[in-house]
């Protein structure tokens, strides 16, 4: 677009010469980022752990293969993962006297996956190199070549008696042989002790078992044999093979708890932060802390506070929150936010930060109940704790136990806050849509805490991501060709060098 290209070049040159306010340009970049649907597709309201298996698989393959062209490699790797995502790759670990081959054949009948043994690897090796197959690296390389050919590459595999120790397991991981399941068959203790006395192979198995469990700790599934028949054991293992064990980074909660004053949202957030080891981020508290610092933003906050308690602008408020939640503790443990957002515009700004919330919980409670709670509340200014009138008998007998009404609990302030919440909550719920979980906050507080905990234990609602500012619609008739625009890259398909082909296990 001609005019658009001129503006882009002019803005870039003006910014380089210092003619453009950097804060304004930062805000414009943030707003443009909010209009990108692809950005919000990845920063959805779903927990981050849902994409971690794919991310871990890509990172593992990149470290193993170390390709010359990482972009092409990632593209082909994603295509390969999509095609092969339901294929199981199993390592079977069992004591030497257990009939592993029979169990592998039952699994083959149940799942259609072929078993692979060390004898089969020896049979596929040249006669002159059989003696070298006892080397861990040689076994790993020949196993990789075997697994990448024929039906094993298409249908998956079950390794029956390999790897035998930690050294072979690490060598196989190094060349890219990564299983999806590692099943260990555990016999009863009495039977295990009898076999250990009779057979020296059992002693070697016990010696190598710890190393194998350490190498595959993230994928290990223990199956107790007990009194089950081999057929029952095979069906149980086949069922376990259909379930992928999650081994990525755990989900970090980034919770926004929305509720009116008097709904006990701050005490509920404190309880949740202690139960789930989260950081409780209360906006009112961090605003007070920010006013004590010596920065340009904090100086502006103090000026707003002196000018008749002027309300802090939304841009400054979100900067305070973003600076806090990007701290090491919040990034490491997750957080739960209270007293913010109060309007839908603040919610949209919150969704535009680097780590937006992935859970939105709204407390549903009658405003009259909140009003009665606030009017029936006093504050101990020494400890800054709040108490109900009904629980303050000690103030009559203890002269040092002095309570008074906090300035925020005056009737006109309460009415103003509740009215503000009433005017904005419908727009907030409409913007949050199905990503918000609504909790009944009436009744006994213990029951409310249990409802809140149960909501977090359940998976997040499956819904479309929130997009703060949808991209503007462009009329095709307004688009003009500009010689400086990048051409369509498809015209180079006939003259471009072909992409390198990478192989995957």
UniProtKB/TrEMBL annotation:
<feature type="compositionally biased region" description="Basic residues">
    <location>
        <begin position="1"/>
        <end position="10"/>
    </location>
</feature>
<dbReference type="GO" id="GO:0019205">
    <property type="term" value="F:nucleobase-containing compound kinase activity"/>
</dbReference>
<dbReference type="Pfam" id="PF00406">
    <property type="entry name" value="ADK"/>
</dbReference>
<keyword id="KW-0808">Transferase</keyword>
<keyword id="KW-0547">Nucleotide-binding</keyword>
<protein>
    <submittedName>
        <fullName>Putative adenylate kinase-like protein C9orf98</fullName>
    </submittedName>
</protein>
<dbReference type="GO" id="GO:0005524">
    <property type="term" value="F:ATP binding"/>
</dbReference>
<feature type="compositionally biased region" description="Basic and acidic residues">
    <location>
        <begin position="18"/>
        <end position="39"/>
    </location>
</feature>
<dbReference type="InterPro" id="IPR000850">
    <property type="entry name" value="Adenylat/UMP-CMP_kin"/>
</dbReference>
<dbReference type="GO" id="GO:0006139">
    <property type="term" value="P:nucleobase-containing compound metabolic process"/>
</dbReference>
<dbReference type="InterPro" id="IPR027417">
    <property type="entry name" value="P-loop_NTPase"/>
</dbReference>
<keyword id="KW-0418">Kinase</keyword>
<feature type="region of interest" description="Disordered">
    <location>
        <begin position="1"/>
        <end position="54"/>
    </location>
</feature>
